[in-house]
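User: Can you help me understand a structure? I only have the sequence.
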Amino acid sequence: MPSREAAIRVTAVPADTNVYGDIFGGWLMAQMDLASSAVASRHSGGRAVTVAVDGMTFHRPVFVGDEVSVFATLEKVGRSSMVVAAETWRRDRHTDEAYLVTKARFTFVAISQDRRPRSVQPMALGG
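Assistant: Let's start by predicting it. Here is the structure, written out as tokens:
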């Protein structure tokens, strides 16, 4: 698991399952979108909306009771857009072993109060 702080950490519960009893992939994607939007909104200093999700790949299932941690990192900044890389890890609540579950890139556009794209600051040098 990455050594940096998770943007979101939550325990998966029965309400988050699909018809087979595994944690629903859409729930995981929503957690990743929330974590990524926090990074994009913080960088842009205001509202940012999701416009694309790329490369969503599921590597392992998540089960009820697992601790789910989402790590999100700003990767690229355009005039009004931002790309955030997100990865989700699971850990059984009774062990220290963690496993990569899924990862994807989320693209956001910063918008103003009239819901039009607005400029954002460039990405700081070195990350």
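Now, to help you interpret it: The first helix runs from residue 25 to 44. Residues 8-110 form a domain with the Thiol Ester Dehydrase; Chain A fold (CATH 3.10.129.10). Let me know which part you'd like to focus on.
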